[in-house]
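Hey, can you fold this one?
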Amino acid sequence: MKKGEIYRGKVSDLTFPNKGIACVDGVDVVIKNTLPGQEVSFILNKNKPGLKEGRLVNLITPSPSETESGCSVCRECGGCSYQTLPYDDELKLKDSMARTILGKALKQSVPDRGLMERIYEGITGSPVTEGYRNKMEFSFGNAVKDGPITLGMHTPGHFMDVIDTPDCNIVDGDFRMIREAVLSYAKEHGLSFYHRFSNTGYLRNLLVRKGINTGEILVDVVTTSEDRLDDDSFAGMLRELPLTGELTGVLHTIHDGVADAVINESTSVIMGRDHIYDEILGLRFRISVFSFFQTNTKGAEVLYERVRDYVREAGTSGVVYDLYCGTGTIAQLLSEAASRVYGIEIVPEAVEAAKVNAGLNRINNVEFLCGDVLKVLDELSEKPELIILDPPRDGVNPKALRKILDYGVDNIVYVSCKITSLARDLHMMVGAGYLPKKISVIDMFPRTANMESCVLLERVSNRKADSSTPNIN
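Sure. Predicted structure:
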């Protein structure tokens, strides 16, 4: 096989949640965004001994288990890898991947070969599989060079191209209506979109948030300062939409930098207020347009109930550390079971939001600290009885994890949104004398290749942490 050449093969299995294996002339090639049973063509873009990867070019024949999708652009968009699968099949696929990845990691670290089967509690599906996203970030652009303005998602592998997503079915119906109305408004008023290479143009992004349990909606249009927006006209257009929810705020954010990410250089309120409220498990949260908040509210309730169950099983009543706490949801949910909770988060806006939300819920035994976990831990004098970990997708920094393990607490609850990162970190935790007592998977992101996992670990011995990385591929 030669790098850069196009090949054809049938996908037989998955190595990761969105990476399939196609066998060509007896050689296995890993191809992203494929499903077992599909026949595909691909370009070989990595050709190393033991590692051959291809980039998907075309789907020749769908998998026998695939059905018609409710989204007309799901294959072009690429965001929903499992959009064409019946949901039961999607759960089975994710369950199998979780068992394989975490089981392999434990077998490399634990002599007990039957441990995974005894502690694995399986996968719990999302209470809602369509219209579940409470936040969307759409991009302005065009689908082809010099084509008309579009508003939707970047095409995988072609990040200058943006395709319209008129019937995306993982977002709320109000989101689809708002997207369509804003795109029509931009066309009618002749507004240009931002060109990344030339650093010219006006419209950049459209952000929409909705409180799933309150119905409150927040809209933010992100532009450069190259042109001017008629604020009254824009807000008036949105107010006239027959939304099922309540439009509580319209914002305008300026971003003149070249970075493709949304950066808040300045934000003004066009109408209403700059935040919405939503509720999870009896707690109320104030959410700004840039706040971190789980994108699947109903799924988050399932996840946080599982965390609470694991904490109850650990039996803590003392000091709890909630590390990588975000806006402090878990810390507040655990406050009744602890004497005091310390939440640590590196994002200043998230910490401020956590403090506001704790005030809203009249919770007084939670303290939120801003900074890198590795450094802030040295500032705390009260030692924890229990530690909660909910790190970013890449997992816990090895130096920070070593310091966390040195506390020697009896139990740790680890929440992960990337199962391969969890598998890597489990290796070091087992090496430090901790064993998983329970592992469960919660499908927080239906139709996509992502899933959330939760692990209860128990300290069974004092051993030196092994920071080597297991081979989970």
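The chain has three domains: 6-64, 90-127+294-459, 135-288. Let me know if you want another pass with a different chain boundary.
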